[in-house]
Amino acid sequence: MKQSGNAQSAVKIDLPRAIWKQSENDLLLVISGSWKRDGPDLIEEGAVADRFPHRYEVDGLSGYDSTLPAYLLAHIRSISIPPTEEIALDGLPADLRGLLELALSVPEEIGNQSTSHDSSEIRKLGKITLEIWAQLRAVVDFTGKTVLSLWRFFTGRARFRTVDFWLVLQQCGVQALPIVSLISFLIGLILAFVGNVQLTNFGANLFVADLVGIAMVREMGAVMTAIIMSGRTGAAFAALIGSMKANEEIDALRTFGFDPFDFLVLPRVLALVLMMPLLTIYANVVGILGGMLVGSFVGIPPVLYWTETLTAVDLTNSSLGVIKSVFFGAAIAISGCMQGMRAGNSSAAVGESTTRAVVASITAVIVLDSAFAVIFTLLDI
Fold it and tell me: Which residues pair with 370 in a beta bridge?
């Protein structure tokens, strides 16, 4: 029985304990047991104080690893330290005291802090608001620099390689025709099928031509082309410029006296602004042809379908989508180049910038299209 009691006593001693003993003018922290990372759970006795211990008692401490200094450091840093108050480490082993003094001499990083007010909804709302404001400022700043670069181009002071411009123009134009053709043709088919189902109930399936024509030239042609170019060309701009930044090629351009905006951003903005109206017109024609194919299947002769389309689609309607496409092209190019220029210096950061470029481009296209819809409604167009 005596041996059993001694065994139980040994087990109790090995349990890690932190006993807080405080009086009016004194705070003592008694540390005992074996503080091991894979050992038993910590046992705390007494109320954990919101002030620093005046002294420590470690007579019952049988061993420790990083668990003990981590516990003490977490408690110390959880208290706002008055400038005039010194942290007492009396009673701790010399090696543990030196470790804590070294840790306390280095300020804690803000990102590593875990405080209770982080969960405040007001604080979260404030952080989100500040992030949105910072993003808006960055967009305005980048757009302003792009406008200045365009001004230097029109005044003959911008410098970039002509071969780069023609290469980007080819990538934005001819190489984009297959995917634009496919998507526009399918959109025309879908609009014609849906319109025919509804208009047949009224015996007016001929007006499928009006529906497809007006929808394509006013909205769907420009918007779908812009979304395609956002995922195809805007992402390519961000990936290319982001890779150049990761490889420090943009810094090399600055070293040689070239403005990165003139050399990288300007030719891409010009190319996409020039090609977007042409791609939109092409998408409108292909979409109408898709609707005509459906019309021929439901009994509308192609000649009659084409004549009805020309009657419904006047010059005003057909120009609205083309006008919007110019702004869509500028928004896509600016979003892609901006995310590329703001990318980090790693391959993972390049991938993240590409994703952000696609999201930002599509968002900008939808926002601009909504604004144009309001303006055209107010102008009764």
Answer: none
Q: For residue 73, count CB atoms less than 10 angstroms from its CB and return exposed for 0-12, middle for 13-18, buried for 19 or more.
A: middle
User: Residue 346's CB: how many other CB atoms inside 10 A?
Assistant: 11
Asked whether the whole model's pTM tops 0.90, one would answer: no
Q: Tell me if 18 sits within 8 A of 44, measured CB to CB.
A: yes
Please write the tens of the pLDDT for every residue from 8-24.
Answer: 444 444 788 888 887 76
Cβ neighbours of 76 (radius 10 Å): 16
**Over residues 119-144, mean pLDDT:** 85
CB 32 within 8 A of CB 13: yes
Residue carrying structure tokens 């107010």: 378
Q: Could you give the 3-state DSSP secondary structure of residue 294?
A: helix
Distances (CA, A) of 42 to 31, 39, 46, 340: 11, 9, 13, 50
Nearest partner of 261 among 250, 272, 252, judged by Cα: 250
Q: Are strands 27-35 and 61-64 parallel, antiparallel or unpaired?
A: parallel
* Strand pairing class (17-22; 27-35): antiparallel
Q: Is the alpha carbon torsion for 267, 272, 273, 275 positive or negative?
A: positive
Half-sphere exposure of 242 (CA within 13 A, CB side): 26
Reference 257, options 358, 334, 159; nearest CA is 159
Q: How far apart are CA 193 and CA 202, in angstroms?
A: 15
| Count of C-beta atoms within a 10 Å radius of residue 172 | 27
Over 80: is that where the pLDDT of 80 sits?
no
Tokens of 358: 């696609």
Q: State how far the Cα of 174 lies from the Cα of 168, in Å rounded to an integer.
A: 10
Query: In this structure, are residues 324 and 222 in contact, taking their beta carbons and an 8 Å threshold?
Result: yes
